[in-house]
Automatic annotation (TrEMBL):
Protein name, UniProt field: FAD-dependent oxidoreductase
UniProtKB keywords: Oxidoreductase
InterPro entries on file: FAD-dep_OxRdtase, FAD/NAD-bd_sf, FAO_M, GcvT/YgfZ/DmdA, GcvT/YgfZ_C, GcvT_C, GCVT_N, TrmE/GcvT-like
Aminomethyltransferase C-terminal domain residues: 746-830
FAD dependent oxidoreductase central domain: residues covered: 389-445
Gene source species: Albidovulum litorale
Pfam families per record: DAO, FAO_M, GCV_T, GCV_T_C
Family in the record: Belongs to the GcvT family.
Domain GCVT N-terminal: 447-725
Boundaries of every FAD dependent oxidoreductase domain copy: 30-386
Length: 838
């Protein structure tokens, strides 16, 4: 979000309190590339946490990139993750007290914030979001349209059903706030040096060891890339993939409007992709339009300083006219300024934060998606802790930079096309099951055309085209109508679910990441990073967690021993980059281990359901009986003309196999299975069905319902932790201490609503005997159990025993209404796993 709250002249002269030195140090603990909001936040927090030897290098003047024209709005929109709430509230509270701490005025004003809901679907989204955000200290109240008008009298709320009022939110001056952060850092020893571009990150033996500038080199123990929209190019020169693209961002400032109060609340209107606020007596109208334009796809000019972009009136005028319908008086006011400036965005609208996967001790903090002022303090805090302590204090699974370790999402064509929808996607209304529409087809299974012909509706996940549900025909699958209720595919998905429970289904799971881990020391290496015992006989499949030294999850996955020195690691597509990075970073210097990503060459076809064995036996000569091929074993089998690796595992709670098929043979194997199962009623099934099946069995998923701040003991996965295995494992001592402490206060439970009508999508608050004790991590509809089902962590005042779980009065808040629920420590569907092991 942008504003002219600070002009270029003001931004240049407001360097009070600084004595910028041209003397370049030869060595520092940490050098930060970039002197915008984020770079100064990192320096502020590093020094706050005890690292005083910090240098900030700014290519021009502090705030001269995008910080100088940021709006400085401190508003939460609709936050959908715990980490977003934590970082937002941290930043809001820090900025509110920054002036008192540093002695520099920041311009912070608590003017309040309004979000209108003009449609039932938007109201549902806001009500669901309100219940979630309140538990993290964000005060918000549902108000009437009349009350919204009283607070924002120039607005037209005639179509508004309800609105939401946030009294504690406000605005700050971005330049002044950044200067205050820099002063706070300098007061604790940091040096801030301007007019010194970084030309190169110095490296040795896979590590960053400093930076090169026109004025000399600085050796450093840590290097941080916080260069805003220039970060992509800074990273590329060091071989780091940072998919980040600048986009045009517009706002208009009207001439003065009579009677406009200086403390007018902030207003964000998702219906018109616009935001509004008072600006020196006039009204600022900002846009996050749905046809955004990328800016300088090839390269960001190095001399772009306090710069503006020539506005495209023809493109933005229709969007301004839509925005004026919310504030009609603005349409008749004179235009003081139409501003266009660049803001940088990531392909999935999550930040790029963490240690670069390809370069140790090189850290990244970029891609704040026009929310740099709002999230800067929280990101600065989290990254500073990460650098100093060695682990991230908040859930990093969504924003860890290693999710792009494979180099994807970063071609000029992809960035240009994806940017078109990023502004509106970040700002507008959101729905469950929504997906990106642009820059599609990045990663396709070889079965894509077959599945499309079968009626698949595809969604995108980490670049992969995944079949979400299947319609009776391709034409019916083409368009999606989004809703918070039962969507148009509901009955089709229910039929897939029933086929899995009563017959047989095929699922294309090629997006799962697959690695061959081989070599003399492969068993020793994998044993050291795995909580479970993976040093098993060849042909065994082991489910395990990987944890850090604190006992927090770094992955949950299967490890299959194919031979004495050859293992197959299989993990979800959302953990692809993180899993590979974790493995490569933990190979000891004296170990001979190779890691090969075989995902691109392998098609994974899952066959599940009580008729799965009947189907498989029709196409294979191998004995697939339970005695010959028991649960959690693997072997090579024939299917028709072809040999494939079959793993007898399940993520849906039914008899079944994962078939790992070379791409060369995948279409033929799929066709053979479909034809052979025609009279058995075999169906294709998509991700919606996978979700409902796995949640009925309460199966966990790293990056969705457990993250690096959770541990296997509290998550109910203690069965996959072998504390007594020879040699131990990373995180063993921390998990042993948790185990020794007895029944934990915090535990993951499964929940089933007592009313079959409401739906669970995740983030719904959990109540035990009237007290807020947690929230649903993820939900779906349990068609076999007969109601919505979900899993979530709950925290009690004492040990959360089975007696308390079974005897408590449980309720789930769904958009402000509490619904009774059953809670369970064990899976509510087939707890004895009789169906899986038959």
């Amino acid at each position: 979000m942008t504003s002219t709250a600070c002009s270029k002249r003001a931004a240049k002269v407001q360097l009070r309190g600084f004595s910028m030195s041209d003397q370049l140090p030869s060595h520092t603990q940490c050098v930060i590339i970039g002197g915008g909001s984020l770079g100064c936040n990192i320096a502020y927090h590093l020094t706050k946490f005890g690292m005083s030897d910090v240098v900030v290098l700014e290519r021009d003047k502090l705030t001269s990139g995008t910080t100088w024209h940021a709006a400085g709005e401190i508003v939460p929109a609709v936050l959908g993750n715990e980490w977003e709430c934590e970082l937002y509230t941290y930043g809001r509270n820090l900025i509110a007290g920054l002036e008192e701490e540093t002695g520099l005025a920041t311009g912070f004003r608590q003017v309040g914030y309004i979000q209108p809901a003009d449609s039932p679907e938007r109201l549902e989204e806001l009500r669901r979001g309100a219940a979630f955000m309140r538990r993290f200290g964000i005060e918000m109240h549902e108000i009437t349209a009349r009350e919204a008008t009283e607070r924002f009298p120039v607005g037209d709320f005639s179509d508004t059903i309800s609105a939401f009022w946030y009294p504690l939110e406000g605005r700050t001056n971005p330049v002044d706030t950044t200067q205050a952060l820099a002063r706070g850092a300098r007061s604790r020893g940091a040096r801030v040096i301007e007019d010194i571009p970084v030309r190169e990150i110095l490296t040795a033996n896979g590590r960053a060891i400093g930076v090169r500038t026109d004025k000399g080199d600085i050796k450093a123990e840590h290097v941080v890339i916080a260069a805003g929209m220039w970060s992509r190019e800074v990273g590329a020169r060091a071989g780091i993939n940072l998919p980040l693209q600048a986009a045009e961002h517009y706002y208009l400032i009207t001439e003065q409007l009579e009677g406009l109060d200086r403390n007018l609340p902030l207003l964000e209107d998702a219906h018109s992709w616009a935001y509004f606020r008072e600006e020196t007596g006039g009204l600022l109208v900002g846009l996050f339009e749905p046809d955004a334009a990328a800016w300088n796809v090839g390269s960001i000019p190095g001399d772009f300083t306090f710069g503006e972009i020539e506005p495209n009136w023809d493109r933005v005028l229709p969007h301004l006219e839509a925005a004026f319908r919310r504030v009609p008086s603005a349409a008749n006011a004179g235009v003081r300024k139409l501003f266009c400036g660049p803001e940088s965005f990531t392909p999935d609208l999550a930040p790029l934060v963490g240690e670069a996967p390809s370069l140790r001790n090189c850290w990244v903090a970029a891609g704040l998606n026009s929310l740099g002022i709002l999230y800067g303090p929280g990101i600065g805090m989290a990254l500073a802790r990460w650098i100093i302590d060695g682990f991230c204090p908040v859930d990093h699974t969504s924003f860890n930079v290693d999710r792009f370790a494979d180099g994807s999402h970063n071609t000029p064509a992809f960035r240009r096309d994806r940017t078109k929808e990023l502004l509106a996607k970040s700002f507008g209304a959101h729905f469950p099951n929504d997906t990106f529409k642009t820059a599609r087809g990045l990663k396709r299974s070889v079965l894509y055309d077959r599945l499309k012909s079968a009626g698949a509706h595809f969604v995108e996940s980490h670049g992969w085209e995944q079949p979400d549900w299947f319609a009776p025909s391709p034409d019916e699958a083409r368009l999606e109508t989004y809703s918070w209720g039962r969507q148009k595919w509901w009955d089709w998905h229910a039929a897939e679910h029933r086929a899995a429970r009563n017959g047989a289904i095929l699922m294309d799971m090629s997006s799962m990441a697959k690695f061959l881990v081989q070599g003399r020391d492969a068993a020793r290496f994998l044993s050291r990073i795995s909580c479970n015992d993976v040093d098993v006989t060849p042909g065994r499949v082991v489910y395990t967690a990987w944890t850090n030294e604190m006992g927090g999850f770094e992955a949950d996955l299967t490890v299959t021993r194919l031979s004495e020195d050859r293992f197959l690691v299989v993990v979800g597509e959302n953990s692809h980059g993180h899993t590979e990075t974790w493995m490569r970073r933990h190979i000891a210097a004296d170990e001979f281990v190779t890691i090969t990503d075989v995902t691109p060459g392998t098609t994974q076809i899952n066959v599940h359901g009580p008729r799965a064995r009947d189907l498989m036996q029709r196409v294979s000569t191998v004995d697939l009986s339970n005695e010959a091929f028991p649960f959690m074993t693997a072997r090579e089998i024939d299917i028709g003309y072809f040999n494939v690796v079959a793993l007898r595992v399940t993520y849906v709670g039914e008899l079944g196999w994962e078939l790992h098929v070379p791409n060369l043979h995948a279409v033929q194997v799929y066709d053979l299975l479909k034809e052979a199962g025609r009279d058995l009623g075999v169906r294709d099934a998509g991700m919606q069905t996978l979700a409902s099946l796995r949640l009925e069995k309460a199966y966990r998923d790293f990056g969705v319902d457990v993250d690096n701040t959770d541990n296997p003991i509290e998550a109910g996965l203690g069965f996959a932790v072998r504390l007594d295995k020879p040699g131990g494992f990373i995180g063993r001592d921390a998990l042993a201490a948790l185990k020794a402490a007895g029944v934990p206060k915090r535990r993951m439970l499964q929940f089933l609503l007592k009313d079959p009508a409401p739906l669970l999508h995740g983030n719904e608050t959990i109540y035990l005997d009237g007290t807020d004790v947690g929230y649903i991590q993820v939900g779906a509809y349990g068609h076999t159990l007969g109601a919505a089902v979900g899993i979530g962590f709950t925290e009690y005042k004492t040990s959360l025993t089975a007696e308390i779980v079974n005897g408590g009065n449980w309720e789930i808040d769904i958009a402000g209404q509490r619904v009774g629920a059953v809670a369970s420590l064990k899976p509510l569907f087939d707890p004895a796993m009789a169906r899986v092991k038959c």
